[in-house]
Amino acid sequence: MNKKDNTDLTEEKTENSVKVEPTSAQESTERINAWSGLLNSIANVLKSFAPWLWALVVVIVIIPLVGQLVIAKSFNAPPPEKREVTIQVKSPDWNKVDEAIKNGLQTANENTKNYAEQELQTWVDDLITKVDPGFLDWYFGYVNQKEIEYKGFFTAIKTGVTNLIGLTNIGLTH
Predict the structure, then answer these.
(1) Taking the CA atoms of the chain, what radius of gyration do you get in angstroms?
(2) Which of the two ends of the chain, N or C, has the fewest CB atoms closer than 10 A to its terminal CB?
(3) Tens-place pLDDT, residues 112-152
(4) DSSP H helical segments within 58-141, as ranges?
(5) Helix count and strand count (H, E) for the chain
(6) What per-residue confidence (pLDDT) applies to 4?
């Protein structure tokens, strides 16, 4: 190394040489000041993010930790006190139960019969109003009743004679 001045530095090495150009003290100070300014501005940026970083730490780490502690404490709760409860079971009086069932069935049967009678009467009354009033007088009139009676009488005689002669066995009657 050769020293010419306090402000000039020169360094030379063989094969792996590193050359440092001569610099002045003022340039070195400026570089140091520039690096210092850069580091200060980075520090200021990090300081401005510090509250947000702490908030993130609280959300990510502390809140779940508190939740785990709450859960752990809830499972360590003492079991509830054991109380003895005496239950007295009374056997029902089966005769009263049978009587109540019998009465219930009879009441239901009577109610059902009454309801069915009312519905049938309503239906019959409705049908009567739909039938022509003249038809009933004709159907139950004297001449029509005699006609039905005579047809019944002659049909019975015809059937008796047919069976007596034996025409039903050979298929001559319909």
Answers:
(1) 61
(2) C
(3) 999 999 999 999 988 888 877 777 777 778 888 888 888 88
(4) 63-75, 94-130, 133-139
(5) 6, 0
(6) 46
